[in-house]
Amino acid sequence: MTSEKKCMGCGVVLQDENILQEGYTTSLENDICQRCFRMKNYGEYQTVAKSNDEYLSILQSVGETKDLVLYITDLLNVDKDIEEVRKALPNKMILVLNKKDALPKSVKEEKLIQYFKDMNLDFEEIIVVSVNKNYNIDYLLKRIKFYQTSKNVYAVGHTNAGKSSLINKLIQNYSDKTQELTMSPLPSTTLNTITIEINDYLTLIDTPGLIDNGSILNVVDPKMVKKISPVKEIKPKTYQIRKNQSIIIEDFIRIDYVDGVKNSFTLYVSNALKVKRLLNASNRDDLKDLNKTTYQVKYGEDLVISGLGFVKMVDKCEIDVYIDQNVDTFLRKNMI
After folding, report:
1. What is the mean pLDDT of the chain?
2. Residues 6+ apart with CB under 8 A from 63
3. Would you say residue 299 has pLDDT above 50?
């Protein structure tokens, strides 16, 4: 039997007839589906494929309101299509830069904010937060109150940006509600819109994350997802790289230095990942069976590996990148 009751963890409509379909629960009296129950209590993660077409139709309905939107992004994995998402919504919008605690303490907040201001994307404000450290959450709430157009405020962003974590923190800090959204390091945890009344003047509406089809999290073993997702402040690894040398991260990616002067590569990835440098790369075929992309890097650019992090490069050069064909890589101006 299917009811109109929704799972308090992921927002899907609950049903007790088909264990293989989303929303299954052993009893319609339960508040969460079996998937959320097993995630929360046993750490068992199940991915559920949601198409971006479904997400875009939800975004369209958000755009038809005049409500404030929080666009939440992960500082270690800033969305490639941030401009497209901003332009898709006419609403007032606060850009929330989450997971500051994952970046080194030496990275200045003002520099991060300026980096996004330079994109000229018409955000009402850009706010850096850390849910884990409870950093700037009070300030975010004040600014939400300042820009609100109604009680309703929408949370949007890509999967794994920390939307559910942020909303849970707001519930914990400012509400007497006991509802908690399901969190996991895997994509597509939130399956439908979830409405949470925080207090008399604020109702947050969480939306499913926009799926990053090019994320490395989609192609690695679920056990590796935890290793990729940093839980502590990243300790950047810097290498002085010359022509005919390579950097290899786990068995995910190989970066060959094809041409250029001696260069500095700084890796911003989880501390748990193994990194090695090949000093004479032409004699080694490690990972060369993966898909190859050649980049002409300009002065001061990052190589972004979707879902994994980024490599900061200083000088212009030519590199070959070997990685699974389903994982996106791209260049951008140095963020740090």
Report:
1. 86
2. 88, 89, 90, 91
3. yes
